[in-house]
Specification:
Layout: E1 2-6, H1 11-15, E2 19-21, E3 26-30, E4 35-36, H2 52-62, E5 68-73, E6 79-83, H3 85-96, E7 103-105, E8 108-110, H4 117-124, E9 129-134, H5 137-147, H6 156-163, H7 167-176, H8 184-188, H9 199-209, H10 213-220, H11 227-243, H12 256-263, H13 270-282, H14 292-297, H15 313-330, H16 336-341, E10 355-359, E11 374-378, H17 379-386
Parallel strand pairs: 4-6, 5-9
Antiparallel strand pairs: 1-9, 2-3, 3-4, 5-6, 7-8, 10-11
Helix pairs in contact: 2-3, 9-10, 9-11
The chain binds zinc ion.
Zinc ion binds at residues 335, 337-338, 377-378, 380-381.
Length: 388
């Protein structure tokens, strides 16, 4: 790969013919069409938050350097921004007044055309430090993944989008990476992450590929047909909607793709699910509320999903003491199950450390995790009871 350093290009040169796409929140072209600001493998513009974009322009006004910018020289003689897209989009938005924002100058908010001429010139005459790289796509790709510089590092899915860029990624992003998609709010009840950071797309790919995102992207890379991806995602969302009424925070970011695969052939009654769900949410002994959906889907048997509250040490000691005093007085084992078992342990007095606490009435049958529902059993008996 060959790199050439350019220090002669100014902010004004880059801003010539700047085109900004308001719908997709991204800068498209600069340098009179010679510069592609957002190639498809780049992330969406995320500096437009009224802080980072303002900071870029204020840096220019103060004469601070903006840092290194990297372009790739394509075979057709055009440049693509490899790194610097966020900074370029910020200053070009400001200078060209596309979706304009104000910066503070001498205590007042100013748009570009309300700055005094010296300040305007200071910005547009700023010389940038730009490396132009030439090389094969794989060389540039490998290097791009390595540098991962300036500002927010690329996350996993952003890197995948660059590695597998092509018609499939382009089409998929229109659906899953677009915050203005009308379905986004409904999806976000169940899927966590930021659509602009490609995390909704990542989830959709994870679900349809059963965890093999790279394999799926490689297979579909050159095909702009995303029907299967969209259909599978919507099917899973509809499935969740069809079973659960509850849309609280515990529903967000579950491994719905896996749960769908495992349980979508089972019938569920929404009313019944809903009342079970409410009861578990209110149950103070259920310490892992996020386990509720899977617990219900699985037939309400895997109670380790709920991380039911256990007896504390003080309660265990108290019950142990009481139980042992009584057993010693009666000349039997302090494990009530050993005592009635008639075996070699029927008179054995266990140490506290040889015993575990057990719910007399099981939690699943309404038993509470309180002293009056606690008994100490030897470890062997406790284990065999727990397995029933
Ligand atoms: Zn026992």
């Amino acid at each position: 790969m060959k790199t050439t350093l350019h220090t002669e290009w100014t902010v004004g040169d880059i801003c010539k013919g700047f085109i900004y796409d308001k719908n997709e929140n991204k800068g498209l072209f600069g340098m009179n069409g010679k510069l592609i600001i957002q190639p498809e493998y780049q992330r969406n513009y995320i500096y437009g938050d009224g802080k980072k974009d303002v900071a870029v322009v204020e840096s220019l006004l103060k004469g601070y350097p903006l840092g290194l910018i990297y372009f790739v020289l394509n075979a057709d003689g055009k440049y693509e921004v490899l790194d610097g897209q966020q900074r370029i989009t910020s200053f070009a938005r400001f200078v060209n007044q596309s979706w304009p924002f104000a910066v503070e100058r001498n205590g007042k908010p100013r748009y570009f055309n309300s700055l005094d001429v010296n300040d305007e010139n200071r910005i547009i005459d700023t010389k940038l430090t730009i490396y132009v790289c030439e090389g094969t796509p794989s060389e540039i790709q490998a290097w791009f993944e390595t540098i991962n510089i300036a500002g927010v590092p690329l996350n996993k899915q952003e890197l995948r989008n660059s590695a597998y860029h092509g018609p499939f990624v382009t089409e998929a992003r229109k659906v899953f990476s677009n915050p203005d998609n009308a379905n986004m709010n409904r999806w976000k009840a169940y899927v966590s992450g930021d659509s602009k950071r490609q995390q909704i797309l990542e989830t959709a790919l994870d679900w349809v590929s059963n965890g093999d995102i790279e394999g799926y992207m490689a297979k579909h890379r050159d095909n702009g047909d995303i029907k299967e991806l969209v259909n599978h995602f919507e099917t899973v969302i509809d499935w969740i909607d069809g079973i659960f009424e509850y849309t609280g925070k515990e529903m967000c970011g579950q491994e719905w793709g896996k749960l769908y695969r495992q349980y979508h052939n089972n019938p569920y009654a929404k009313d019944d699910v809903s009342s079970k769900f409410d009861k578990l949410l209110d149950d103070p002994f259920v310490t892992n509320k996020r386990g509720i959906p899977e617990y219900i889907l699985g037939g309400s048997t895997e109670k380790q999903l709920l991380n039911i509250r256990v007896f504390d040490e003080a309660t265990k000691r108290k019950v142990y003491k009481k139980q042992t005093a009584k057993a010693e007085a009666e000349g039997v084992s302090n494990c009530p199950l050993c005592a009635v078992g008639g075996g070699s342990n029927s008179k054995r007095i266990y140490e506290l450390g040889e015993m575990d606490a057990d719910h007399v009435t099981a939690w699943s049958k309404g038993g509470t995790t309180t002293e009056d529902n606690c008994q100490m059993l030897c470890k062997t008996h406790n284990r065999s009871k727990g397995n029933k």
